[in-house]
Amino acid sequence: MINAAQKAGNWRRVMGTLAVAVLLEQLPWAGWVIELLPDFVLVGVLFWVLHQPAKVGFGLAFMLGLLADFQDGAVFGQHAIAYVIGVYVVLFLRLRLLQFDPLRQAAQLFPIFLAVQLIVLLVGWLAVTPPVGLGILMPVLGSTVLWYLIALFVRLLHGKGLQDHA
Amino acid sequence: MAAPDQLMFARRLGPTGRLFIWFLIGVACVVADARYHALEGLRSGFSVLIQPLRVAMRAPNDMASELSGFFVRHRQLQQQRDALLAERAQQSLSVNVARELARENAELRGLLQLQTRPGLQVARAAMLYKGYDWFAQRITLDQGAGSGLRGGLPVMDARGLMGQVSRVFPGSSEVTLVSSPQQLTPILVERTGQRGLVAGTGQGRLELRYMPAQTDIRQGDRLLTSGIDRVYPAGLPVARVTRVSRSQSSPYLRVECLPLAGLEHSRAVLVLIAEPQIIQPPASKPAASKPQGGKS
Questions:
Q1: Contact A70 B138 (CB under 8 A)
Q2: Is B202 left (phi over 0), alpha (psi -120 to 50) or beta?
Q3: SS3 for chain A, per residue?
């Protein structure tokens, strides 16, 4: 499981690449380039989370997310939450991702990047202009409580679970 | 269950627990910022930190343009100078006319006892950075509160209105572009004087809203700021109408416009700093002007 990137990833290198990523984002990109521009910081964070999970984790991702929020003039927390969730997914899939060759790894990361971008949208949407009030989220709580009650009822009625009786 | 030599409780929280904690912190940030605007200090802190980096990262670009400027051909410079001289001759003509009109206007306003228009002061700024957000199109300028910028000031380039200053930091400021979604600009159609509202669509285009179906508006009409909002001075060019279409489902025309300013590529911009206008009800008739007084 020890690979080249893991051996090479000492603190200086991790911080150096992340600093370069931040600097690259400060360039005055414009025109069609900006449409295709990767999120350098996110790529850097997820790369080091994959290869050096002991060094780069939630805290750093959160801070860099706040920086991204500042850069886009967005509400603080949008990118921070999205980056943290991205880190979680990569940690969750870490052993699986490390087994793939670069092409497949990139293909596996595509949905993660997409999810991060969509979470930015979702958080901003809820924070800035929710189409109706946030009260529409309340049924989530209700459903959870109802689930608990049903599960409790089933357990009381049948003992441990239903699968044995099927 | 657990082996005797194994720890019953892991000392560190698992990833799910840590995700949950950071998620809660994130939600707290969102609420503090969106609801209570409590994180503006953090934002100016970031701006102070990032500003020198941005200036430094712009340096190679500036140097490249300096170098390419050095190697420009002499003949080309001459041609440009001739073109500029011709343009200046033409413009000095219209400046004379404008000066005459301004004098006449001032006299007429004096006769009619109208308020004179506030004098405009201009701050030059350069675009430093373009943000990329789902909800607004913003650019960052390299001038801030230090050069007298305030929130709400109009920003122009040589061709037209670019947008409005939305956040001001000590050494930089954020401008919301006219093409940003939900950014409204009150305009009038130059040809007919019809007033209206343009809204950004978020894709570099503008939309003229709420024009009744029988409105006289054509492709190619220029839209200028109307000045009735007391945010933008009157007469700044904003956009040109590119398409007018009628929809079956709406009583209004669908009017698409293209902003005149180079929103994507203008590097040098002007910020118009107008003195804040305080509307005071005239002293002679305080009772009649009461409803207007509260709306300044």
A1: no
A2: left
A3: CCCHHHHHCCHHHHHHHHHHHHHHHHCCCCCHHHHHCCCHHHHHHHHHHHHCCCCCCHHHHHHHHHHHHHHHCCCCCHHHHHHHHHHHHHHHCHHHHHCCCHHHHHHHHHHHHHHHHHHHHHHHHHHHCCCCCHHHHHHHHHHHHHHHHHHHHHHHHHCCCCHHHC
Token pair of B124 as six digits: 């030059």
On whether the CB atoms of residues B128 and B142 are closer than 8 A, the answer is: yes
Q: Which residue has the higher pLDDT, A89 or B293?
A: A89
CB < 8 Å to B33, chain A: 75-77, 127
Residue B175's φ and ψ, nearest 5 degrees, are: -115, 130
- Which tens digit of pLDDT belongs to each residue from B197-251? 999 988 888 999 888 888 899 999 999 998 887 788 888 899 999 999 988 888 8
pTM: 0.78
Average confidence (pLDDT) over B55-70: 81
Candidates A29, A70, A75; nearest CB to B30? A75
Residue A135 has which token pair? 């009260």
Residues of chain A positioned with their CB less than 8 A from the CB of B174: 73
Alpha-carbon torsion (B97, B100, B104, B105), positive or negative: positive
Closest CA to A27 of A15, A38, A16: A38
pLDDT digits (tens, 9 = 90+) for A104-151: 999 999 999 999 999 999 998 888 877 777 788 889 999 999 999 999
Residue-range domain boundaries for chain A? 4-129, 133-166
ipTM of the complex: 0.85
Cβ-defined contact of B264 to A78 (cutoff 8 Å)? no
In B113-176, which residue ranges form alpha helices assigned H by DSSP? none
* Amino acid making up residue B164: Q
Burial class of residue A122 in the structure, from the number of CB atoms within 10 Å of its CB (0-12 exposed, 13-18 middle, 19+ buried): middle
